[in-house]
Amino acid sequence: MYKAALFVCSESDTFLKNYTMFAPNVVIATAGHPILPELRGSSYYQYNMPVHIGKNCWLGAGAVVLPGVTIGDNTVVGAGSIVTKDLPANVLAVGNPCRVVREISEHDREYYYKDRKIDYNSLKSKTPLQALNLTHK
Predict the structure, then answer these.
(1) What does the pLDDT look like over 105-136, one tens digit per residue?
(2) pTM for the complete prediction?
């Protein structure tokens, strides 16, 4: 049996807006430590910075979000990405370190996966919450 987890290592605030989704094994870390070895033994030098994740985001499996990062609304973070800096709204970002690959575009309004078209007629019969969670065929 596979068990999914969202791990929030929070020594500071973590702000999550509505409809954001997390795949298995996403880590949100708000605490960090100095690089200089002599300072790491002292909790005085630990730093804590809030993380902000916008509305309707999607963080792929195994993504890691580091202290002080802000992710804009509607942004998709690819699986295995290490988010070290802020990401703007409405983009697809991937990698280690995570970088913006492209903006979410009109193509994404027509296709939900590769060549699979969105059937907007079937969405009309759903509530707004159901429509946000597109069913894959």
Answers:
(1) 999 989 988 889 988 888 776 665 565 554 44
(2) 0.83
- Give the torsion sign (CA, 86, 20, 59, 106): negative
Going through 1-137 in order, the beta strands assigned E by DSSP cover: 6-9, 14-16, 21-22, 26-29, 31-32, 47-48, 51-53, 58-59, 64-65, 70-71, 76-77, 82-83, 91-94, 99-103, 111-113, 116-117
The full set of domain ranges for the chain reads 6-104, 106-137
- Region 6-104: CATH code: 2.160.10.10
Task: Specify whether the CB–CB gap between 51 and 14 falls below 8 A.
Answer: yes
Q: Known catalytic residues?
A: 33
Kindly state the tokens that stand for 77.
Answer: 């973070």
